[in-house]
């Protein structure tokens, strides 16, 4: 018994010594968890310096951000999984996750190697799980995304953002990125502070905000451009009845990437597979016309998302992840 205790103590001490040594060897960590280092200042975890820490699993585990019906996306990625198997020479299995927090934890624990994370949770995955984003769904000339747009009725007198001071503006819901968080982060820089310069009312959904503006219930509404476009394409609204007085930089949709500690040669094969794969017709239909994975970087293409998170008090740390997990659990109970 004493021998086993001594052995266990030595293991703990060796792990602690290794962690300290790694910490001392890390010149820059930035916002990353203490498990990771960012020596090249690109905001994502570096590959371990010690080759013995590189992972080269015989089976790669892949997943996509949790949605209401995960089976739909498991089927949608089946062809790509086969392509990834040929490119890497490894078996690829799909792992269904039930929440964004669970997906982050799966990569942090080493149970998940390749994944697609939703726009917001990408920051948690980068900082807490050593996730390295490298692509989003897209087209030959750019990535698939959406903008925050401020819409007003075309027959209204509102021509610019300042004209909305003292008016009634519909946000969607408190947790919505483009419907509430982004406006609160971006509009003050334009001289328009929500709840101060205009009265905020919550509509509940983007389409309800759009219809509310159309019917004159609200003077304006910040909504996601893709929702607005889909409503117009479906004939629910006439685009000519509206005026867009503000359009944000494009927000990326869900990111795709890999665990930072995979063997570099394996990473090259994974990245190559993502960049050369072309979506078959069924997959294009599922993902609204996107036909490929478009290359991105977390530093450049997630800048606007990080700005919104900072402005709205969202911290991509353990406390923030816990808060997100609690929200997801509460939502699941409803």
TrEMBL record:
The entry's keywords: Signal
Domain Solute-binding protein family 3/N-terminal, chain residue ranges per copy: 59-290
Signal peptide: 1-23
Keyword Signal on entry: yes
GO cellular component, one term: ATP-binding cassette (ABC) transporter complex
SMART domains linked: PBPb (SM00062)
GO aspect biological process, one term: transmembrane transport
InterPro entries linked to this entry: PhnD, Solute-binding_3/MltF_N
Coiled-coil spans in chain: none
Family: Belongs to the phosphate/phosphite/phosphonate binding protein family.
Protein name stated in the entry: Phosphonate transport system substrate-binding protein
Species of origin: Desulfobaculum xiamenense
């Amino acid at each position: 018994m004493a021998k086993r205790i001594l052995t266990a103590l030595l293991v703990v001490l060796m792990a602690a010594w290794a962690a300290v040594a790694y910490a001392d060897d890390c010149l820059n960590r930035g916002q990353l968890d203490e498990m990771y280092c960012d020596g090249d200042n690109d905001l994502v975890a570096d590959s371990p310096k010690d080759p013995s820490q590189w992972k080269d699993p015989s089976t790669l585990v892949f997943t996509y951000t949790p949605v209401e019906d995960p089976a739909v996306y498991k089927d949608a990625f089946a062809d790509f999984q086969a392509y990834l198997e040929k490119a890497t020479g490894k078996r690829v299995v799909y792992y269904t996750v039930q929440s964004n927090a669970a997906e982050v934890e799966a990569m942090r624990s080493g149970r998940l190697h390749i994944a697609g994370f939703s726009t917001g949770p990408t920051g948690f995955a980068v900082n807490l799980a050593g996730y390295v984003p490298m692509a989003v769904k897209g087209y030959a000339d750019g990535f698939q995304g959406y903008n925050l747009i401020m819409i007003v009725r075309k027959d209204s007198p509102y021509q610019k953002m300042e004209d909305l001071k003292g008016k009634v503006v519909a946000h969607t819901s408190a947790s919505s990125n483009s419907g509430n968080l982004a406006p609160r982060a971006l509009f003050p820089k334009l001289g328009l502070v929500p709840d101060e310069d205009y009265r905020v009312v919550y509509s509940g959904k983007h389409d309800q905000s759009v219809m509310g503006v159309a019917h004159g219930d609200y003077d304006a509404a910040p909504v996601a451009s893709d929702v607005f476009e889909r409503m117009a394409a479906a004939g629910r609204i006439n685009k000519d009845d509206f005026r867009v007085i503000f359009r944000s930089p494009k927000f990326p949709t869900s990111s795709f990437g890999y665990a930072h500690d995979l063997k570099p040669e394996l990473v090259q094969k994974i990245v190559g597979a993502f960049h050369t794969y072309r979506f078959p017709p069924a997959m294009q239909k599922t993902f609204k016309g996107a036909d490929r994975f478009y290359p991105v970087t977390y530093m450049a293409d997630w800048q606007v998302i990080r700005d919104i998170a900072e402005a709205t008090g969202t911290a991509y740390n353990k406390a923030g992840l816990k808060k997100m997990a609690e929200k997801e659990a509460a939502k699941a109970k409803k």
